[in-house]
Amino acid sequence: MRKRSDGGWLSIVRGLLAAGAVAVTLMLAGGPAYAGQNANGSIYVSPSDVPAGGTVRISGSVDPQECPTSTPAIPVSTDELFPGSFGPATARNSQGAFALDYTVPTSTPAGSYQIGLRCGGGNVGVTASLQVDPIGGPATGAGGTARRSSLPWTMLGASCLLLAGVVVGVRRRLARRVS
Amino acid sequence: MLDVLAGVLAMAGLAGLVSHLFVASGKPPVRVSGALPAPTTTTPRSIPATLAPRPATRTGVPRSVPLRLSIPAINVSTQLVRLGLNSDGTLQVPTDFSVAGWYALGPSPGERGASVIVGHVDSKQGPAVFYRLGELAPGSIVRIALADQAEVVFRVYAVREYAKTAFPTSLVYGATPAPELRLVTCGGPFDAHTGHYLDNVVVFARYLGVDGGPR
Asked: Which residues from A are below 8 Å from B12, CB to CB?
């Protein structure tokens, strides 16, 4: 990443605004830190948790003055979340913003992952966290108290009734012959 | 002779037809109750300073291994074992049907976020530790003894039943602004071919506070 070139008022004001924004965010949000930002850029992950195999949107921006907009943004994390540690390199718009949809590999173990951001070979210094959830619901029963199907008995009952009807019919026919 | 045969068959037939009335009634019914918060999974597109304020967070307790769980309303008092993941990414379940287990890769009870505890509804022999979980209703109290605290206390606010094929992982495991608790077991129809129930019963509870002081 390029070093900050202007040390003027604009930069200071921008830095103060960004720091204020972070402070306000921390006060308001109070929730888990799944989004991060500093004066150089920002990164968000939504939703903040997903089972392995699910898709999240990773978005954010890198200040064009820090990293030219022709350079892609690259999310980084562990090998388990991003094979090779690098996520998909994603083009940025004229404001430096980017967004990508990422499908978490089904092999990613459940747990909490920090996602950082790189641009132009430099680390932007922001992180967001993503929680990978266990897949599906737990198998918490063996069926010892499950209601058993009564269908076989019902079928047997119907068959018996039918047979009883046949027997009665045969008996009547026999009785008629005898008389 | 034929009269007797017809009579026996008719009796057997009627008995068969009404047999379903006499089949063991199975698990206690799950009473779905309480309200869940609306899902909040929208993508933040504006800068964080413009995000809407969230409810104030309730301070929880530092991470600590849960040792015992008690739910007086359904006479549950059990030790807790630690649970991880199976190789297929699903949640492990306790090998002992009479104890419940804590998902140790998630928050501990009283930490911010949703702490998850699971237990079996039954074994092949009969009822297991969470057999009556579905009887809980909003307001029921859940107590968990931690390794370094006296007890953290939660109050049930909702009970739900979900098909395993549509298990709401975010609602169960996802981030919450304050400490919460999820109690999970099985429910719904039993598939004798796979040996599994088709649904999960999930009890949602909010953190009330610590009962007693540090030990």
From this structure: 156-157, 160
